[in-house]
Amino acid sequence: MVDTKREIERKYEGPAADGDAGLPELTGVAGVASVIDKGVAELDATYYDTADQRLAAASLTLRRRTGGDDAGWHLKLPVSEGVRDEIQAPLSDDLPRSLTGLVRSRVRDAELVPLVRLRSARDIRHLVDESGALLAEVSLDRVRAERLSGGEGTAEWTEIEVELADDGDPAFLDRVEKKLRKAGLARSSSASKLAKALGETAPKVKGKKAGAAAAAAASVASAVEKDPVSAGDHVLAYIRAQRDAIIELDPAVRRDLFDSVHSMRVATRRMRSAFRSYGKVLDRTVTDPIGDELKWLAGELGVDRDQEVLTERLTGALDDLPRNLLSGPVRTRLRTWSHARSSGSRRRLIAVLDGRRYLDLLTALDALVADPPLLKAAAGDPSTVIAKAVRKDFKKVSELIEEALDRPSGGDRDFAMHEARKKAKRTRYAAETAAPALGRPAADLVKSMKSLQSLLGDHQDSVMAREAVLGLSAQAHAAGESAFTYGVLYGREEQRAAAAEAALPEAWETIGKRAAV
Known about the structure:
By secondary structure, this protein is α+β, with helices and mostly antiparallel strands. Helices cover 55% and strands 19% of the residues.
């Protein structure tokens, strides 16, 4: 059993946090009616990470803590600056599987070991309003850090931490900060206690601490990534962003957070499309096998998603029908059909994310980014190499659209429009890669392809909906139920498809005039 809490906090350091000065006076903060002394809590936390500090590199913290009112295991996942999701599990001697699964995309097969021990004397104050409701908790933490692996250093410091109450207004922290700054405090230079402990206790490397050396290397790498020069630089930046998205979304998918499965699926598609669009930049003999694995992962992520979308479409269509057009237990049959077709894949998906095939895919993506299979064109001018690839994809879309428009309405046109939709999506992703290099023309193409993809997607959804309605109608008929409403739904879906087909020529003419990459 785990609990999740959104943590919004800020840390401060400076003369007012040193020695025995204690906490600054905070009764003057607007909205604070009183400051309640909650005493001193003795906290003892052991932080776990891999030997090469993969969690710390991703700003994740995993700890076992005793003392205070929330003893147990805590995993903190970054959300934004000063905001983290803290996922808690009950205190135990062993690492909880409920938490280790959430860091598996980072850890892979590496062992999690005790890295740092932090013992803190926390002097706590509660800031409350006139009704006695908690606004924020302010604490003065006197910390002693002890390195447990990867070094033998120790460090001591004092800091002030301000944590917003649950569902509190973040603007309140600004008012508290104004008071603290007047007392001589400034925001902490370290993002967390663990980050400070790692920096302070790291072994020396050529006159510098290892943590500082690693930070410097990361800074150089970041600078290189932000200033792509060649065609290969641009393509690799896009590939790297999708790799990072897959890894970062892993915990959200495991937690079943809104849109996380869809977002990870999109990242897999973007990367696979980039492999195919930029086959002159990256060697496809290397990327094609990885692309096949990305296609497999996208399929696993979409096992229930496509069914959910179809069910939502049909449910919405039923909601739009007047009551006099509803005949028979249509809603009940739709729910039964949807449940029967659903794979109940939540457990299956977690098993996939824990499985060897997925972990091997992540390792392959890391290897690709670290040692990319660049071809001769990768060194070329992006305005030439990348633009050529985008134009090639756009030409394929154009050919498929023209083919669809030349065919009579029916199955052949449906197929051609579906193929055009897939190529439009690929062209959109290619243009996304090109946008940093080509600017406005590529950005405009992204918008155009997204619009075309939406039009063609609605048409394809209608095709799928009509197939589903025919199946439902057959089931209803076999059960002796009225099939009238299914006929109405089928007719309406035909109208939606016809509307999309009718809109396509004008939409395509507009897009053709704008395409200037």
